[in-house]
Amino acid sequence: MAVSAKQRYDISVRMACHCLDISVSSYYYQPKLSSDNQLIADWLLRLTTTNRRWGFGLCYLYLRNVKGYAWNHKRVYRIYRELELNLRIKPRRRIKRDKPDALSVPTAPNHVWSIDFMSDSLADGRTLRTFNVLDDYNREGLGIEVDLSLPSLRVIRSLEQVIEWRGQPNAIRLDNGPEYIAQALIDWANSRRITLMYIQPGKPTQNAYIERFNRTVRHEWLDLHVFESVEQAQALATQWLWLYNNERPNTAIGGIPPRQLLQAA
């Protein structure tokens, strides 16, 4: 518009810019690197066509670190969005839930135990499962049972072994896995008058104590070993669990080992 006004009315550039309320620098501005935009778009289209699971991060790192282009990530992402190359993420199925329950904090040992399963594999590829038991009060690992299969009857036997030396809990917090909703486990809990506190489906945060324990098990034990047999895995689990309970500081209980808090209680 400023160029047209200058030519039509034979006025100066300053006057044309003043009448149209724009800066003189805008009048003289010339787009820079416009050809690079086409090059970026071409690269992005080729990368996403060849590598269908690559998102923006991998595409940008490839152009920057592999091909050596110095384009700014904001510029590349703007073109990435304009081309509508964003990966479509399948939304999670919404589960209808009741009113969320707050995570209770036990005030004494054996008030509430938490139990959960984990999976790994042996060196020969067979699936390995672990059954973890935790006292929520002092975050003490009460047991780690390791085997190729852990049905509900095996779960009951493991809990009975822990109860023999630790005493009986008032309640056990658990998820809705098939081993836990089996009638055998429900009948066993009723016979011992132990409350089974099932968390709501899709809410692992309601079993946060054992989930945090599982993370430690994964990082400090499972990921550090290649298991040749179930017996070896069980032996290493027993050794690690003793170290966890007696020597490893736990930040959730003030930076002391779980057994130290148990002795204080």
Automatic annotation (TrEMBL):
GO BP terms: DNA integration
Gene3D superfamilies attached to this UniProt entry: Ribonuclease H-like superfamily/Ribonuclease H
Domain of life: Bacteria
UniProt GO MF annotations: nucleic acid binding
InterPro entries: Integrase_cat-core, RNaseH-like_sf, RNaseH_sf, Transpos_IS3
Entries under Pfam families matching the protein: rve_3
Integrase catalytic domain: residues covered: 105-265
NCBIfam families listed in its UniProt record: transpos_IS3
PANTHER family: INTEGRASE CORE DOMAIN PROTEIN, LOW CALCIUM RESPONSE LOCUS PROTEIN T
Full protein name: Putative transposase
